[in-house]
Description:
The protein is mostly helical and 142 residues long. The protein has two domains: 1-30; 31-134, no CATH class. 53% of the residues lie in helices and 4% in strands. The chain has five helices and two strands. It has helices at residues 3-26, 51-65, 82-98, 100-105, 122-134, and strands at 76-78, 114-116. The chain has a two-stranded parallel sheet with strand order 1-2. The two termini are 32 Å apart. Residues 132-142 have low confidence and may be disordered.
Amino acid sequence: MTRNRLTALGQAKIEYCRFSLDLARRHGARVFATIVPREAPRPDRSDALRKDYAFLFERFYYFLNGLPGDPMGYMVFDELDRSAAHILLGQVSSYFVNTRNGRSRSRLIIPEPFFVHSDLTTLIQTLILWLTSSVGVCGYAA
């Protein structure tokens, strides 16, 4: 590939993301995100959800609860590592099934997250870049 073709591809991806984000904004979409250093403390129990995720679910729940009608929220996670995604899936499931707050919040949040590969998904790459640059953090963790 030539430099001009790579430049054109990059510009097309940026425009696609700009269009997608503008379309989402015009239709009232909201994004809740958490960025945590990889070295952040983990719970002792392997099935326990990290506090930052519980806090994110809490904030997301209260946002949805304040909307009119019957909103449903869904979660999208970046699958950086397949085995880590399976562990997180079990932790999320345990939170929504085995805790009082999780069961209550599952009436507004679909308790089964979607996983995407940011290295393959231009829009997710752009969202991560935007989030990390807007809060001054140079990394994120799933």
